[in-house]
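Morning!

This is the sequence you dropped in the shared folder:
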Amino acid sequence: MSTAPGPTVLAAGCVLWRRSPWGDGGLELCLVHRPKYDDWSHPKGKLKRGEDALAGALREVLEETGFTCVPGAALPTAYYTDAQGRPKRVDYWGAEAGEGRFTPNDEVDRLLWLAPAAAHHRLTEPRDRQLVLALLDALHSA
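The structure's back. Tokens below.
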């Protein structure tokens, strides 16, 4: 019996952002709550067989948030072990939110738009917090 963890699970997602609709020009980040894990994270998910990572990231954002988006800078890739003990690689991009409307479902039951500092504190995993900082750096250097 093999103890090898198996092939790496490939996934992708976005740090979704928008300008505040309240007219102050502030930045807001989108976080999703996944009831299966009771966590707050950036929208992301597993790639379909043969799917390009960026295409998968945009698909996952739409599926999980109901929003279209325009991808921007590539952000750091996350490497970790998933809940089943398999190695996982998640490619991320910053992405500006377009049109859409969130509808709760079995996979994502809540969505929040938060200022970057509040989003940083609300995220469950430290690796997701680093993506907030990477996005802010990318937006400031654009």
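Headline: The chain has three helices and seven strands.

More detail when I'm at my desk.
O.
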